Amino acid sequence: MSVELDVFVGNTTIMDKEVYQLWLNGHTVNDAVRVRMEGGVLEECEASAEVLLSDTMDQFRTFQMCERLLHNPAKLANQLLFQIPPDRQAMLIERYYAFDDAFAREVLGKKLSKGTKKDLDDISAKTGIMLKSCRRQFDNFKRVFKVVEELKGPLVENIRQHFLLSDTLARDYAAIVFFASNRFETGKRKLQYLTFQDFAFCAGQLINNWTLGSMDNLAEDMDVDLDKEFLQGLKDLKILITDKDLLDQHKSLVCTALRGKTKVFNEMEANFKNLSRGLVNIAAKLTNTKDVRDFFIDLVEKFIEPCRADRWSPVEMALYLTHYTNSAHILDTFRYQAVWNRYMGVIKSCILRMYHD
Amino acid sequence: MEIVIKDIASSKHWQEPLATLEEARESTDEPETRDAWWEELRQEIKSHAKALGCHAVIGYSESTSICEEVCILSAAGTAAVLSCRLLQDGCLDVLIEHRLSRQLPLFPSGSDKVEFDLGSSGSLGCEDLVPLGCGFCHIPYDELNMPFPAQLSYCYCCRRAKVPDVLFTTIDLPTEANITGKGCLIQARLCRLKKKGQGEGNATCISSLLPFMEYELHTQLLNKLKLRAMNALFGLRIQISVGENMLVGLASATAVYLSALPCPGGIQIAGKTPGDLSYEQYMCNMQRKVNDTINKNRELYQINPPEVVEELIGSPIPEPRQRSRLFRSHSESSDELSELDLSHGKKDAFVLEIDDTDAVEDIHSLLTDAPTPPGFFSCNTEVMPGINNWTSGLQMFTSVRVFRLSNANLTNQGLNKIFNELCENLLKSLYFKLRSMVPCCLCHLNFTVAVPEDELIQVAVTAVAMSFHKDQTQDSNKSGEDRAPMKVITENEEQLQFPLELSAETTPPQPLSSAKNTGPSDGSTAGLGRASSAERTSPLPEGRSRSLRSTRSFPSSSSVTVVKMTPLSFIPGAKITKYLGIINMFFIRETTSLREEGGVSGFLHSFIAEVFAMVRAHVAALGGNAVVSYSMKECVFMENPNKNQAQCLINVSGDAVIFIRETELEASSTQTQTANTQSNEDTPA
């Protein structure tokens, strides 16, 4: 004796947020029923396990039928098969495209290719996120990447319009796309302490300040690529470390400004030349694609680690970077103020974000 | 002759006027033969009505169930006496308003028709004034000339006429009826095994089973009605489906407590073997459970009939029996459960005799009917009596379940239990699914049973969940306003700037206009209306055009029109401004890759979703934004999992309409609109 067939179809498609989340997380129907039972929905509504199973099956089926529509969210609003109120549509899309930071952290900067897809098993094991969910998130990354790759104009806006996502989520996706296309190295051990949100913040800074689109809205090129001209210009900053006078002058200006205001003054004074060399060298190397990939590891090795060794506090770090940036303006023989500002603005906010345990 | 009824305000129903006739027939392919059968059946219905002293059958419906070469034809209706009094001069102008607004709710689906037997119309009695709230319950006979034995008492509302103790009817509850508390859905379910057979023998076998099934369903209904402390059934639908080796019967109705009828007595359980102590103990337990259930239900459905009626009116005829009954109901509600002889020695005592294990099962099944969860109400009529303040929250749904009986050696009891559970679980699932809508009422909850194969039982439900405001549910004054949306504002010819010139002269009478005499059909009004429109070819009134535009241009950002669907004849809080015509669509889907499409459930799920989508798209294409009186008339599903194949046929119908929210309407309407009631000839069965 068994229920051979059991369907429920509403004129307005009924969707339970909780069940949707279970589906997105990659649970099987039976798992989902168990989770729901533990969640106490039965006591709440005087239902039996059978009822719950039937309900879960129905909803999973509905979600499955909706899934292909969700691959192109704009279609969801214009399809006729399911009558879904606009707020529900938004919820469906937002949650479908939502991802786990832990997962995103793992694939960040990796090529969104079949090769990476094969590693999903390992990522799933490592993060504890179900494989099905990993696949969905990976496919979402890939899909978004493919669509915006070809588009002109601002990256975040493109993602938002094409996938009808909220601003925050669109920004996160922009970061993923940006990292994937520039192939930033994020997997090194020294970078493990950084979270996805740290990187996403940095990506936002880079997108807003260092890409071609950031300077010129009408630029033909996209937000994904760094401004080549700007990178070329960064080479000129080398003068700050190659010219001995300039370096000394810069150091004395910063030291004067910071004297008495920081506990780590001595360490700072001793390390100034090294730190400055580190930052300027990173700038000078950015024309090289390979060195672009190492941008974050370089920042950590050349700047963050020495500072951490000397136990700078974040406040001292901020103070130092502010004076370090501003003092360069007073140097009379230093002519590359605009480039310096554009460079240091991003470096400063990135370092401050990345400077934690 | 079929006439859409104009008024039954003072019509009379009788206890068990329901004449359900069933005939098992060997089916033939000739339509003439079938027509003859139907003719025979209708004649029988008419003669039954006549025998009951009634000259009309209302709430009439016909159905068939076919298995191989056997076909069961069923017809059911409520015998009634219609009074012409309300249509006569004098009363007319007073009551006309009632009539207009009442007309649609009484005959919602359009399938309810009245068959007048003109021969007996001479006996139409125009008696003295009958109160609206209880008049339809009064018996049309005098006590000595009853066509069948029944227990009578004086009407609890007016105290003048006599009423039966129980009323079963197939019609929706008249809007003006006085009821106490809320109503609820009642179902009687029954399975009967039969031997596989062929031809005439099979038909005979089925025919011999039918009366017993009818009887048992009826008994179940009566028991369940008593258990809910109610005294009348409305919207009764009995469906008996035939399969190769079994018959399945399902009766659904909406139970209410009619204030005019006496308070139902409890159920007394009587055992056959007194003396056995443990047995007596058991009986006592049962009795207590039954009493508890009754009391619980009384509370749940807010049934607190006024017990002081006698003093208030000063009963004209002191009747000892009546007083004792009141007393009894009083003592019942108190907690003296040990008193087993609750209704001892009285005729209306409802005794359930437990004489064998079957009866024990029956009682158990009575008690296992799960109550509707809090916040939910359900009925199979258009709306729940006692609830008027609907919100615009509306969710129509279709649910289909197929159950496979894998055990070949089933008994009738086992089968009953399974079928009972199937229906109960389905209901529970519905409540669970729609829990976000509470407080809400599942309206028009109509089950359809079929036995598509040897070991399969299929149950399909289409209903609508409507949420309502929790407070002031009892505000009966509001009912008049709420019914108002059911009035239809027809877009008359006068409002069109370019009336159809040709239609009057050239078009022959429409073949479909059998409804000519019932109301304006599109074809006939085109000609009639034109004469007047030619005189005053005024352009559209300002307000009117605005209101229409606002419904047609949908402000939503998406290009897809939102189309509401409901099995009811109205949309709460909205006014139907135009009927766009009948939707009657047949769909057939086949698959040869059943597994790949998610099995039978996946296949049917997407199919039903598609059917909804196509109906919506069709309505949107006509410029409408809703389907009313929607029904799924047929859902035939067949599968062959071994071949990875399945087929399904679905037939749906309804009326495409344009509706406008009353809030929108208020903003734009200061002009008076002639509420031209368009009777539901738009929706023939």
Automatic annotation (TrEMBL), chain A:
InterPro entries: FIBP. Pfam families: FIBP. PANTHER family: ACIDIC FIBROBLAST GROWTH FACTOR INTRACELLULAR BINDING PROTEIN, ACIDIC FIBROBLAST GROWTH FACTOR INTRACELLULAR-BINDING PROTEIN. This is Acidic fibroblast growth factor intracellular-binding protein. It comes from Coilia grayii (Gray's grenadier anchovy).
TrEMBL record, chain B:
Pfam families: YbjQ_2, YbjQ_3, YbjQ_4. It comes from the Eukaryota. Residues 505-524 have a biased composition (Polar residues). Residues 565-657 form the C2CD5 C-terminal domain. Residues 22-82, 160-259, 373-466 form the C2 domain. InterPro entries: C2CD5 (IPR038983), C2CD5_C (IPR057815), C2CD5_YbjQ-like_dom (IPR056430), C2CD5_YbjQ-rel_dom (IPR056431). Residues 505-554 are annotated as: Disordered. This is C2 domain-containing protein. It comes from Coilia grayii (Gray's grenadier anchovy). The lineage of its organism: Eukaryota, Metazoa, Chordata, Craniata, Vertebrata.
